[in-house]
Amino acid sequence: MRNRIAELIERWPVAHQLRSGDFFGRGETSASRRTRELQPHIGEADRVVRSVCPYCAVGCGQLVHVKHEKVVNIEGDPDSPISRGRLCPKGAATRSLVTGNRLERVLYRRPHGTTWEEIGLDQAMDMIADRVIATRRNTWEDRDEQGRVLHRTLGFAHLGGATLDNEENYLLKKLYTALGALQIENQARI
């Protein structure tokens, strides 16, 4: 019993702190054996590729760590004159954009329904397309009171987010303009 107590005291971190003179636990005694054995997962990368964050138009530099042709980590590039190694929360989460799983099922709640049901992605896309077409048809304005040509709809609008890159914004602007929408905006301008 006495040996067991001595063994427990020997392994106790406080006893180690007192013996080494690290009374506040700020030196070597603050790290456990497990902590000292930890290695950064980016050290296992086969290569590091420089890239630019795809979200807003700032152009923050990124270092993409690749192992076996798969992205294992994305971090800020300290050599970037724009971001100097810093990334916003969205840029820091870029890895999920690359490695995230695409949804194949959609949760849908019917009008006046109280529960969600799963429907297929194709069915959901068809429902959205049908509603856009119906809204455009029902809210289309061909001419105003003075007879001036309008060719527009005020029945729907688009507000893009910072997750959209320039190319996606360009395509969305073209789509909504072709549909006749006037209210087309992006959060970066608001």
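The record above closes out task 2.4. Task 2.5 opens with a second protein, given below.
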Amino acid sequence: MIPATVFLSAFLLFQVQPIMGRFVLPWFGGTPAVWSVCLLFFQAALLAGYGYAHWLGSLRRPRIHVLLLAASLAFLPAIPSKPATTDNPSARILLLLAVTVGLPYFLLSATAPLLQRWYTLGAPDRSPWRLYALSNAGSFLALLSYPFLAEPYLRLRTQGWIWSGLYVGFALFCAAVTWTVGKALSPPVTLQTGDLETGDKISRPTLLTILLWLGLSAAGSTLLLATTNIITQDVAVIPFLWIAPLSVYLLTFVLAFEHDRWYPRMTFAIVAGVLTPVACAVINAGVGLALWIQLAAYLATLFAICMLCHGELRYSRPDPAHLTMFYLSVAAGGVVGGVFVTLIAPRVFTEFNEYPIGLAAACVLGLAGWLRSGAWALWTRSNFAIRLPLMALLLGGFTAVATVAMSGARPALASWRNFYGILRITDLPDPHGASLGRMRELTHGRIKHGSQYLEPAWRDLPTSYYGPHSGVAMALNALPDGQRQIAVIGLGAGTVAAWGRPGDLIRFYEINPLVPMIAKSWFTFVPDSKAKVEITLGDARIQMERELAQPPADRFQMIAVDAFSSDAIPIHLLTAEAADIYRQRLVDGGLLLFHISNRSLNLEPVVRGLAQHLNWNAAQILAEDSPSTGEDSSSWVILTENLPLLRTITEGAPHVGWNYPSRKPILWTDDFASLWHVLKW
């Protein structure tokens, strides 16, 4: 019964993570940092659960656990309520998760180490490490099944209800097992730090050993979160791309603790040392690499590094008498890594330096594990079994440190980093060779989000994705003169404001509080616009819904959706529910535009699906690079029920058509949104 309970608790523990992430993501702007904060909460709750198991594990007090299991049922169903917006999204996310699944998650996390501890007390000759591997296998199965079995077929609220029902069954089953195991245990004993049968003394883990556990766990956790951030910032914040790194991370736990044969120590030391420079090169050249190459490099490096960290954890594991102390140290290291990536790094670094720092730490700690087992004494000129792995780890560590040292070498006037990503200002000397002078460029991550010529004669010229041949420019020029009201989701450098006319109102919706400051202080499109420009801070969908609830809400002649975090898309702005909100905010016959230029995703089927949902007409306008004007290639899709206006726009456009006309439309909803069919592998 204990193995089944351990497996079920681990399955529910990790099945709830993507469910809660899917609920929370659209309420906080759909950025990669949302998932990182969610993971930080889950790691902290795991640490609390392991601490509770460490305290309760040696006691014969099953009623405490049973009472808490009963109390946790009051948290069900596991369906959160939409929160108010806040200037501190991290704190709001942590609080929201705490009041939704706090106690159930705490008890699920405590179940595996607690029952393993009682398992060894009841039969000291049995090893608990297979149960640890079984627990990780349950976690791995939960994560792997979610994007393929749960998410594609079940509505999100249905997932919450099903999980809640399974948790009730778990609570009843776990209470019965806990009560039975507690009664079967011998009277409370004073545990010797040694063998439970002979009484022989076994040394307690030293402080250095505990610090090694903490460091190895923290390095693995840091790499997990940093890898997830890098992957999701350039594609999309979706469960599959959260789950792939987390599944790799858990798989390494399963393999490392299942049996020694899965961790050939020399092989993984060499592979980790070799892949570290490869990963550092990919992070610098990622824009020019195919998506599958980036994913393969990042996930392979994560696997090798985590096998190194978790394999060394297995080599240094203690006697079962100190089982819960080991688990507590590992969980504490996970929290240290989570705090570093989620809370400290965005405030300290203006680059993703936590990634190479995690690589360097893993290589150094792996080296420490080898030295701890006497490798230095075996170092000889001919002993390549020792020299090669140690040299590989040194190479990896030095390369990662050098990457951190050179991260600030990229020329930039200014750079900022916050919850929503990295923003950078760069001045380029006549980048297009058009004799128009210097150009100032704003990038988010590695993707341009606007540019402006600095010469007074050219600085009002709309550039980048908003030039005169772009879909947004063609649509704006086709709207009749008068007091036009235009909404733009995503501010960037504020380039669209350059198209404003006297009497116009252009309202930008921007979620990142740094961007309005940058648009007003470093660029002049917004200050110099002939239109009245308003900037509404917050998630556009939430703000538009709120404005609808407080009539009279403005109705716009055009809404342009151009909200990207680096190159990743906020899926909640491309669903049927979002389209219904846009329709309510448009005047009859108004225009709904989507900027779908993307290196990794083919969004044509998605916007055509929205057109079918709205029963509107759709056309795509393609613009090419124009060095003479600073215009970049772009793809804008226009949706409207006003067919004559759409024809007027397309007749004047240089390139109109679909790149993938044979692809069937795809309709995303808040409950169903999959990237499998739109990825550009």
